[in-house]
Write a structure and sequence with these properties.
single chain, 4 helices, mainly alpha, 2 domains
Length: 114
Amino acid sequence: MDYNTGLVCSLTNAKPAFEGTCPSFNLDQPEADRLIALEKAAQEQDNTGGTFAPEKAGVKKGVLGGVIMMVIAAVWFFGGLAGGYIFYYPPILFVIGLYALVKGIMDGNVAGKK
């Protein structure tokens, strides 16, 4: 990698001038391993944090996750209602749970993909 030119050939130190594949390509294994590790780290960060992370985990659990989210939403909503409060998030959680339930049924994912 040359910061002025961009990606360059390690044999000629010039920009690649071939179409399709290079006949003398040699894989740089440490660089390939580094790129794979970066991709895995990015995927783990997407899966473990951020907005709606617990909901994303529930959707991955399929039918079971959807049912659990809907039950939590109903208990939360009606518990708040009994206490004189109306929370805005339980209906959103219920819809996410319903989505997870339908998606799990369609994918055949009853209790989470392994």
